[in-house]
Amino acid sequence: MPHFQFHLDHTDANSMARVGRWDTPHGTVETPAFMPVGTRGSVKGVWPHQLQEVGAQMILANTYHLALRPGEKVVKELGGLHRFMNWNGPILTDSGGFQIFSLTELRQLDNDKVVFKSHVDGSLLELTPARAMQIQEDLGADCIMCLDECPPHDAPVSRLEEAVDRTTRWAQLCRDSHQREDQALFGIVQGATNPKLRERSAQGLLPLEFPGYAVGGLSVGEAPEEMYSTLDVTTPMLPVNKPRYLMGVGRPIDIIEGVLRGIDLFDCVMPTRNARNATAFTSQGKIKMRNLKHQTDTGPLDPECDCPTCTDYSRGFMRHLFTVGEMLGPMLLSVHNLAFYQKVVRELKTAIMANAGMEYRAEFLARTSGGK
Predict the structure, then answer these.
(1) N or C: which end of the chain has fewer CB within 10 A?
(2) tRNA-guanine(15) transglycosylase-like domain: from which residue to which, for each copy (predicted)?
(3) 94 catalytic, yes or no?
């Protein structure tokens, strides 16, 4: 695809970690990269210019939610997702497949489609592979995802096989329906933590020659060690010359572990969700901002961070904001948490270029094992 080129610049001599550049119509994404999540067209509590200031390159939006409100046709009429969100960089939209997992009680699934009962007003939203493509084409993101089925990690093998085969069949239909050359359509490898089913899924998707591949169905309840071992099996199956995306992951250490296993792109709601619940990710570990010990602390949230929150505000003030319920607290903490995630990725990138990715993991674990 002329609009998308992936350049592999360096691979760590001691792991599968790699540094690269992914060219898109709205700019180049330096990988590995973490994408903040803007589910309904907005990263909660954060201005777009603040996302740029903390180093975010690409953000994610949610097809299911935007199809419900305001509707993809409205977004298209307002100039497409980039203008709608006032974000000039690359955007990725998911397909609605994760909602098959997360909204089980509100959907009906068969071999041809999924029908959701809207959590907003009870109206029905039908997604077929073709409809998922049409919605995402109208939204206009740079990278879009095939409609897939994300099953529970502990589902019976027969149920996992059904989901893998449905995902493969839908991927073919998505590729056949997709029209826009200025969008990269990714296939999604499913199979839970079952190595044989991961291989079955990859073998079904690789002949379709997608410009990138995602690993789905992880961070849905399995133990971290199971996620890592699944990546050990899955990532080597994916093309070296195309971007690899681990969906919905995760904690900073999970991102580090994923990068060491050859993953390039990540997204997760954890930085902003934790911020809204008064939890900060810092160089000293996770910190609970409501703890009384911070009440008269004049120091910064994280002395090793130069984000606006850490530069301009004290821990004591931050605790006060959360204690009295001021909305500025979650906003400031969201900026910091996103800055922390971007800092981890930048540090990891530097370590990879020095063939020291494994050393960075050990050093990160050592310095963040505390927390207050």
Answers:
(1) N
(2) 16-367
(3) yes
HSE toward the beta carbon, residue 53, CA cutoff 13 A: 13
Residue 148 marked ligand-binding: yes
Answer for the pair 273, 333: CB distance below 8 angstroms, yes or no. no
Distance of CA 8 to the CA centre of its chain: 21
> Residue 310, annotated ligand binder?
yes
> Which one-letter DSSP state was computed for residue 88?
-
Tokens of 251: 């904690």
Residue 53 is predicted with a pLDDT of 97
Is 98 among the annotated ligand-binding positions?
A: yes
The yes-or-no answer on residue 267 being catalytic is yes
* Catalytic pick among 12, 94, 138, 302: 94
Computed from CA positions of residues 253, 254, 255, 258, in that sequence, does the dihedral angle turn out positive or negative?
Answer: positive
Q: 96 labelled as ligand-binding?
A: yes
The gap between the terminal CA atoms of the chain, to the nearest Å, is: 49
CATH (one of 3.40.630.30, 3.40.50.1000, 3.20.20.140, 3.20.20.105) for 5-31+62-268:
3.20.20.105
pLDDT at position 370, please? 61
Residues of the chain with pLDDT under 50: none
Nearest residue to 204 (alpha-carbon basis) of 168, 230, 231: 168
The answer to whether 268 is a known ligand-binding residue is: no
pLDDT given at position 371: 56
Q: Considering only CA atoms, which of 137, 27, 143 is closest in space to residue 72?
A: 137
Whole-number pLDDT of residue 3 = 86
pLDDT tens digits along 305-328: 999 999 999 999 999 999 999 999
How far is C-alpha 157 from the geometric centre of its chain's CA atoms?
27
- pLDDT tens, position by position, 13-24: 999 999 999 999
* β-bridge partners, 308: none
